[in-house]
Specification:
0% of the residues lie in helices and 60% in strands. The protein is an all-beta fold and 119 residues long. The strands form two sheets. Strands 2, 4, 5, 6, 9, 10 and 11 form a seven-stranded mixed beta sheet that branches. It is globular and about 45 Å long. The mean pLDDT is 94.
Length: 119
């Protein structure tokens, strides 16, 4: 089982920055990709950024040029650097891991961390 623990959320003014961290443990060698999702009140959960095992990254159009996903393999940690934050970035951010094994694909989620951007 993969366990994901997020940290780094908080309250920030518009234009500010935050860095989220996601520490992974348990079965991490078989993780194919990790990423960040977010869910605002009354909205569906949406993908924000993703980094594949080979290092390829993908971003939602709404965060391109402002957010950067990266990883530290030695620490089994994925980061989301969020710059130029906007009030519409306010949401609960969830770390996600995808593992593809012999029995198929499995999704793992962190507990979520709140990000609030004030105008």
């Amino acid at each position: 089982q993969v366990q994901l623990v997020e940290s780094g959320g908080g309250l920030v003014q518009a234009g500010g920055s935050l860095r989220l961290s996601c520490a992974a443990s348990g079965g991490i060698s078989s993780i194919n990709a990790m990423g960040w999702y977010r869910q605002a009140p009354g909205k569906q959960r949406e993908s924000v950024a993703r980094i594949a095992r080979g290092g390829t990254t993908n971003y939602a159009d709404s965060v391109k040029g402002r957010f950067t996903i990266s990883r530290d393999n030695a620490k089994n940690t994925v980061y989301l650097q969020m710059n130029s934050l906007k009030p519409e970035d306010t949401a609960v951010y969830y770390c996600h891991a995808l593992r593809i094994g012999l029995l198929g694909a499995s999704d793992y989620w962190g507990q979520g961390t709140q990000v609030t951007v004030s105008s």
